Each structure stands twice: as C-alpha cells, then as structure tokens.
Amino acid sequence: MKTIINSTIDRQAQQWIALSRFIGENPELGHEEWKASARLMEQLQAHGFQLQNPVLDLPTAFIATYRGGKPGPTVAFLCEYDALPELGHACGHHLICAMGAAAAVALKSAVDELGGTIRVYGTPAEETAGAKVPMAAAGLFDDVDFALMAHPYHAYEKSGQSLAMDALQFEYFGKAAHAAASPYEGVNALDAVLLLFQSINHLRQQLKSDARIHGIITEGGKAANIIPEYAVAQFYIRSASRPYTDETVQKVLRCAEGAALQTGCTLKTSNYEFSYDELITNERLSGLFTRNLLDLGVKEEEIRTGKDHGSLDLGNVSRRCPTIHPFVKVIDQKHQLHTKEFRDLAMSDRAFQGMLLGAKALAGTACDVLASPQLLNGIKEEFVRSVRHTQT
C-alpha cells in the first residue's frame, strides 16, 4: 500500500512543487494568505476533497475532507502558509502546506481500501495569532484520531517539545509635562516601563531554567523634552509547561502593578496575541514517523533527538488529539529558520525534494495507523496519560 502512496506522490510531484513555489514567491502575512489558501483549496478540491471555508470567521482558514468507503479513524494533516514580515517564507511554510496536502491526497488510496477520513486543516497565522488556538478551543480537533505535520529544517529531528507562551501587553498612562520647565507636574509612563523591565530582570533569577521572558518597548514617548504620558511594553512569557507559565505570568503581573504604583501611573494589561500551550508529542506516533523516514532511505544517525524550538500553536492541538511535529531536512547547509539564507535555500530543488520525502513519511505514518487498530489504541492510551500528566 505504501508503494502506491509513494508512487502517487512521485507522479504528482510537479504539481506540489509548483504549488509550493507559487506560495513561496507570493508571501502573505497571517490572516492575509488569500493566494495561498485559494491555491491549496483549489488543488484539494480537484482531488475530491470537500471544502469548508471560512472556518470560525477566519477567511483564509479551511477544512478539506475526504471520506473513504467505510468507517475508520480520522487523520488530520495540518497546513501552515503564512510568511514573516520583510523576510517572506523564511520559516518554510510554503513547504509545510504542500507537504501536508501531498500526503493527504496520496493517502486516499489507503482510506479507500481500509476506511477512514482524511482532513486537511488550513491554519493561518502560525507566526502570530495562530488559528489553531481558536480552532482547538472550538472543538474542531476533538473527533480527530491523530494529527500530523512536519516542519522543514536543516536536519532530521524527531518530534520534541515546545514552550507554552503568553503574549502580554502593558500600557501605562501618566501625565505629560514640560521636562525642563515643570517636570514635577508630570507622571512619567516611560519610567513605569523601565521599572517593569528592571523588576523582570530581578525576577529571572528566581525562575526555573526553562522559563523565558523577553520584551520590547513599542511606545516610549514623543519628544525628549516632554514627560511621556503613555508608554507600552510587550512581552512573551514562556516555560516548558502551561501551569508554570501561568505561575510566571502572575509574577510578571505583580511586577507590572508595582511599577504603576511606584510611578503613580494607571496600568492596562492585555493579551496582544493568542496563548500557546506546550507541544505534547505522542511518542508512539513519532516512532512510526521515524521508522518511515528510515524506510525511505534516511540513515538512523541522521535523525536527531527532538529539541525545543520555541512556541507553536500546534501545542493547543496536541491537548485535543495525539499529535506530532517532526523536522525534515530540506537544506544541506546549517542555516537557522527565520533567516534570509534559509528562505532562499528553501526555494531550491533540494528543498522541494525534501518536501516530497516528508510527504511520503507523513502519508506512510498515517497508513500504518489506519491499518492497525492495535497501534491506534496504543497511541490513544499514551495520549490520555500524557494529557492527564500535564494537568497535574
């Protein structure tokens, strides 16, 4: 059956390469991916998938569904296709979406024989306000048996960990005054922001080693001779678990309140992006993906242990169904994601071939699970244990 899957991907290779190249050459920011989502939906519909668009009032989100001839598990392939400001597709999302779509279409033959349902989730804005967060919260993954996606990289890497994250904005409101003639009449909002940074710097030494707090000042005043009446800071607060991230957020909030109290400012706190939960990798599912890479000719010594690569909105999905997020080698040079070098190499023939290999591994993994109820039961049992563990 995998022979048919792989030959289907090889036969259709040029259409997936053309799709990926088009999206790579036409980068669009999150929730503005009109061209990318339209092309993806057009391709999937041409291959017999039924489309739902928009999803949750998200105009560039979609769910494409293909049902086999008899009941069976539901497998989800997740597609990302937003680009980075100024850098374009320096995170390789043009490869991610084509990889997922190619895997889904190739898996049709297995679903026709074994039964089941294939869903392709078009998930906008992973880099900012990731659509997987509201989609997961709305229960759109609750009836999914397992979810798969793979990320392009300069190495093969097993599905690992990510950090839970909250994105907090602190606005301080003070009172303007002439900084030379009557500074005593002012209430300095920028001082409050600077005190916040100092307090957080002191807080760090009391935090666990996996905690991360980093921020910027987005508004600090208009002129040096005017006491700033308004100042804004934005922070990402992360850790390896949702409970500890929540605990750290409370400490940061106290720092922010203290800065307002010391300066006499008024404080407004808000979330400027969605909160992401940590990724819960399903190790049984991850092992199947690794085995498929080996079957496709990747050497065992080439596949690294999974690492922490920041935060993913896929973490929220992984609390709803068994999920993996491995990395697939698409370039031979050691360039990191979110760089111009990676962006340029991710448009090469080498990158497209890596994308196709990733699609075969994803589809092969899904095929393994569809063919074995025992495998699926083990995957689900691990999922229940893992999610329960994160809540304790």
Give a brief description.
This protein is of the alpha/beta class and 392 residues long. 42% of the residues lie in helices and 18% in strands. A 6-stranded mixed β-sheet has the order 1-2-4-3-5-13, covered by helices on one side. A 4-stranded antiparallel β-sheet has the order 9-10-8-11, with helices on one face.
Order of helices and strands: HHHEEEHHEHEEEEHEEHEHEHEEHHH
Count of distinct strands: 14
Whole-number tally of structural domains: 2
At the first level of CATH, the class of the largest domain is Alpha Beta
Radius of gyration using CA atoms only: 23 Å
- Poorly predicted residue ranges: none
Number of H/I helices: 13
> What percentage of the residues does DSSP assign to strands (E)?
15-25%
* Gross morphology: elongated
End-to-end distance = 41 Å
CATH superfamily of the largest domain: Zn peptidases
| Quaternary organization | single chain
Main beta-sheet annotation: 6 strands, mixed
Biggest sheet strand order reads: 1-2-4-3-5-13
Structural class: alpha/beta
Global mean pLDDT:
96
Q: Level of helix content?
A: 40-55%
Q: Write the CATH architecture name of the largest domain.
A: 3-Layer(aba) Sandwich
Write the CATH fold name of the largest domain.
Aminopeptidase
